[in-house]
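One chain is below:
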Amino acid sequence: MGSREMEVVTSSYRKDFELKSMNNQALFSLFDMIICEPAIKQGKPNPDIFFVAKDRLAE
């Protein structure tokens, strides 16, 4: 089976995400992509943020 990309997807601003995750850099370095999309109007459980992630991976 081929490798799969893994990403973190959040509706936080990049600056806020970096502040919240600064103590876990080793963990977050394992991900292929970190998507910060504060323009998402509805957070979880609405799936919009995951559709954005799918589209970004396809680029």
Observations:
- The mean pLDDT is 85.
- The helical segments are 14-21, 25-28, 48-58.
- The chain has one domain: 7-58.
